[in-house]
Amino acid sequence: MSHPRRGSMLLLLPIALIVAAIAALFAWAGGWIGARHVTPQAMANTAEAAGAPLPGFRRAHSKGVCIAGSFTPAPDASRYSTARVFTQVSTPVLGRFSTGGNNPYGPDNKARVRGMGLQLKTDDGQEWRMAMNSFPFFAVATPEGFQAMNAAALPDPATDKPDPDKMKAVIARHPEIRAFQAWATSAPWPDSLANTQYNGVNAFRLTDAQGATRAVRWSMRPRTPVVALTPEQLAQADQDFLGADLQRRLAAGPVQWDLVMQFADAGDAIENPSIAWPPSRTEATVGTLTLTRADAQVTGPCRDLNFDPLILPKGISGTADPVLHARSSVYSVSFNRREREISCGQALDATGANTAQKEAAR
Amino acid sequence: MTPPRHFNVLARLLHWSMALAIFAMLFVGAAMVVSLRYREQMLDLHRPLGLAILLLALVRLANRLRHRPPPLPADLPRIQVWAATASHWLLYALMLAMPLIGWAMLSAGAYPVVVFDGFNLPAIAPHSAVLYGVLRPLHGVLAYLLFFTILAHLGAALFHAWVRRDAVFAQMVRGDRQG
Predict the structure, then answer these.
(1) Looking at A3, A61, A174, A325, which residue is catalytic?
(2) Considering only CA atoms, which of A314, A324, A94 is closest in space to residue B115?
(3) CATH number of A63-141+176-361
């Protein structure tokens, strides 16, 4: 075999260039280099910056309680979607009630927003997770606007208070925030988690047996009559009144909500969650949620669940609503961070380990 | 029996198709975790592609163990022989480990392991924050290790083709009959 003639060592240069170019492309794809729009990591960082770091807790809606119960579909619910949850007699439900903000010990009477996260697993192995809120529409039309709003609400390092001019500038760019502010100041405060309505806010699509799809927004409407707190009652309420009230009600019996689908008309804003659809839109009650128990989140089964609104069963799918996709992305970052902290043993409060230690020492 | 001068046709087919798949996988993986809008679409590609890579890697490993590969040039320095052998087994290990870690990580995080709409894989690990908190970062770190190993592999392949001008590059490009 004749020995091949070697190439010049100068040819190492194009090889190095090719390898470097691919590495640079990869670094760009992974967000290490180059200008980038808002990332899920940046949004999680902003949520974290709003308060003291509390390892192992959710980065937003940090205060909460685990809940359990079941879902039963309405007789004609399977008309709209082939999802098994609408034909299975009863589906077990695991979930979580939460209040807004990133303080897991924050006062309930200061939390304007309440949340309900649910996980429904049917016997065909499909899964539906929901993440609903007590507001009827989202504060901002886009995740970029939401990030700008939250960043403007952070305390200014110089004054330790949010800079009102920054918020004014954000509202000028995202005027839809005004509608949300109006809701926050004027909407009644229900006196219980049990008589609060929770709204999916983002639009989804239901696919029926014929393959036809319908754009919907869903809500959990309480069967418990709404009683609003007076401003005096609200001011005097205990900081944990919601959890105590829930335990009291569940001790007396199950608490129920109707799952209501609101169908979009042609021209309704599918991809803009800051615009509520008119109440005159066609609606259908597709089932009933029955909650029977609640458990502390630090040791409860909802702690290590990510209520990602894009975990959907066959028969239900997401829309291009950018806020929906951003929620899914940011929840994933929050979940990764807090599970990592739990895994590393840094989350003694979030896992109840501190409480257990104190009790053992007693 | 004389050793083969080239990799067999199945090995070459798997090498080039998986090269494409793994490159796509690494770029999709790196991009989806920093994406606000397209994470779902990229995940919907990432999971079935990962399963496909796992299955192809098993076929490839079986083929590699049953068919002797063509030898490295006799005059290759010992350090380069060692680097070639070690990097190839590292590539095999990562091709198999990455999809399995991804699958186990989703299981530990109690995520449904969706291959396509309506078809999920069963969990292969218990639901555990401790396990998820280890596997999720491991999946990311090993992805970067795989990427850099592939870059080294590519650089070495081009070094054989352009500088050493030996038979190594052709072993993965041509068949025995094509000479």
Answers:
(1) A61
(2) A314
(3) 2.40.180.10
